[in-house]
Specification:
3 helices; 70% helix; single chain
Length: 70
């Protein structure tokens, strides 16, 4: 069980969203938290990948390295 306090405006928006989806507030909040966690995980993976990149090359150098410019 998890409890949070929301401003009236946020609570009203949450109620409207849940109603428009034909679900309840808990389902909407659960989905939002899951999306946030997935986005955060994706961001961490991207940061790791970027940190492993040693250097960047110009398009001209990359084409030369791949044998596309002769």
């Amino acid at each position: 069980m998890f409890a949070i306090r929301l401003d009236k405006e946020i609570e009203q928006e949450l109620n409207l969203l849940a109603k428009s989806r034909g679900t309840n507030r808990s389902a909407v909040v659960r989905e939002a938290i899951l999306r946030y966690l997935e986005d955060n995980e994706d961001l961490e993976v991207a940061k790791e990948a970027r940190s492993r990149i040693r250097s960047s090359k110009s398009l001209k150098q990359m084409r030369k390295d791949l044998g596309l410019d002769r």
